[in-house]
Design goal:
510 residues, mainly alpha
Length: 510
């Protein structure tokens, strides 16, 4: 990559534009599905713990494949990587669009993930190499604006499609656009890659896949199987051991699959930790809100999508603004302000009732997204700014891997907490109802009572999950206190020859 796109006065805007369109389609597909989850649950007769695999399965594949992106970016040209990624994404979209059973739908979704896993690290790396540190905040802000347009359009478009058509139309809608992007990329991307002497360590890739995959699968299965299941704690233990062996192996290699030495740079390490915590908390809103408004409140998919629109627009508009502010004042003030807003609004979401007003939900979600806009891009950019340029592929791959892992763990954890709380609350409410019953109820009364108990129990489960998210978000505030403005560190690989020359010069003088 370093030989393919060098930092110049004029960045390669054509390449960046094509990559952004591809990334936009991948992002749009993600946000389209959030509103569709209740419809998929009903149509395929599956529960929340199963349908969450549409989100966590996507992240599982991302978590497994993203570690290899650092190798791919260094080995192959932008053109080859982009065409392979978008080709996989398009095939997965077609397969999911014609799925009539959940396993086939999930397979298509995971093939989509195999393509999109490569897109974000590739685009981020091109952006980092193309813009200087001084201009990077504003550039990343514009990049954020374009990508945040997907969450703005996605839920509303999804709601309209689901209200008028079958949920499979969400995939049929994306297919021709994705295919067109592949064709455009084929003709427009012409960059060449010089031959690079780098080899893929298959054992590292295997350890990485078992490590990240085992941990993600374990957490994702907890909602269905329970934390005491051998499948859950067994896969988490195997994944953790494999991950430890993988990290130790990477530290010993000259050309690691993922370079964990980048954690020697404190601002990158801190930004990575904050991003993971925020991702865990963020997915509570993305997953729980659509379930609440459609299942409990009976709000139509279209109105549910419109409810999320103002928040997504706020985030899109704020992205370039926070990018410019970041260039001037750094990440710390932005992160502390944003995380405080995010924590407070998440707490208010833990107080939802059976008749919380639509306007209140719209406003609270918009304020939450306003806070979020100040956190993710400034914090991650600040961390990456400290890395020497040759570590950019490893930095972007590491960030994207851990963000996917954190998001999947957060999603699985919160859905499991919601399911367990719902189950225990339903049992308690049922027992209480039986105690207060004075005469034998009719079947109609029993059915009505069961429905009311189920709704109240699910509401309690959702509120409790949001409360846990509040504590998770509060952890990020504590971490953000230690953020400092990062300056690019000297490359230790480039310092050695220089030091040698100085020593030689001194010996010559003597």
């Amino acid at each position: 990559m370093g030989n393919s796109i060098k930092e110049t006065k004029r960045p390669p805007y054509g390449i960046i534009a094509v990559l952004m369109v591809g990334a936009f389609i991948a992002f749009l597909n993600n946000t389209l599905l959030n509103i569709a989850l209740p419809s998929i649950m009903k149509d395929l007769d599956i529960d929340a713990s199963t349908v969450q695999w549409m989100t966590t399965g996507f992240m599982l594949v991302n978590g497994i494949l993203i570690p290899a992106t650092a190798y791919l970016i260094q080995k192959y040209s932008v053109r080859h990587i982009f065409l392979a990624a978008m080709g996989l994404f398009t095939f997965g979209t077609i397969l999911a669009g014609f799925a009539h059973a959940f396993p086939l739908l999930l397979t298509g979704r995971m093939i989509q993930a195999a393509g999109s896993a490569i897109m974000m690290p590739l685009l981020m790396n091109v952006m980092l190499v193309s813009f200087s540190v001084e201009r990077r905040g504003a550039a990343m802000g514009v990049f954020g604006l374009i990508l945040m347009a997907a969450p703005a359009i996605g839920p509303t478009l999804s709601g309209w499609i689901i209200e008028h058509y079958d949920w499979r139309m969400l995939f049929h809608f994306v297919t021709p656009i994705a295919a067109a992007v592949v064709i455009i990329g084929f003709f427009l991307l012409k960059d060449k890659k010089e031959k690079v002497n780098i080899h893929l360590d298959v054992l590292s890739l295997l350890l990485s896949s078992v490590g990240f995959g085992g941990i993600l699968y374990g957490f994702s299965s907890a909602g269905n199987k329970g934390w005491d299941s051998p499948y859950v704690y067994g896969t988490i233990i195997i994944g953790t051991i494999s991950l430890i062996v993988f990290i130790l192996r990477q530290l010993k290699q000259e050309q690691p699959l993922l370079n964990f030495r980048i954690y020697r740079y404190p601002m990158f390490a801190l930004s990575s930790a904050i991003a993971m915590v925020v991702n865990m908390a963020m997915f509570s809103g993305m997953l729980l809100l659509p379930i609440y408004v459609q299942t409990i409140r009976g709000i139509t998919p279209m109105d549910a999508g419109l409810m999320l629109l103002p928040g997504a627009l706020v985030m899109a508009i704020m992205s370039p603004i926070t990018g410019k502010i970041f260039d001037k004042i750094g990440a710390r003030p932005l992160a502390l302000t944003g995380l405080t807003i995010m924590t407070v609004t998440t707490y208010f979401f833990s107080k939802l009732s059976m008749d919380t007003s639509y306007a209140y939900l719209v406003t609270l979600h918009a304020i939450r997204m306003f806070g979020m806009s100040m956190v993710m891009m400034p914090v991650s950019t600040n961390g990456l700014n400290q890395l020497p340029a040759r570590f950019y592929p490893h930095g972007t791959a590491m960030n994207n891997t851990l963000n996917q892992v954190a998001g999947a763990i957060g999603t699985a954890l919160l859905v499991t907490i919601m399911s367990n709380r719902t189950e225990s609350e339903a049992k308690a409410l049922g027992e209480e109802a039986m105690r207060h019953m004075t005469e034998q109820p009719t079947p109609e009364v029993i059915a009505q009572m069961k429905q009311q108990i189920a709704m109240k129990a699910m509401l309690e489960g959702i509120n409790y999950s949001f409360l846990i998210s509040t504590f998770i978000a509060a952890v990020a505030i504590v971490l953000a206190i230690f953020i400092k403005r990062a300056k690019q560190a000297e490359d230790p690989g480039e310092m050695k020859p220089a030091a040698k020359n100085v020593t030689t010069a001194k010996l010559a003088q003597n």
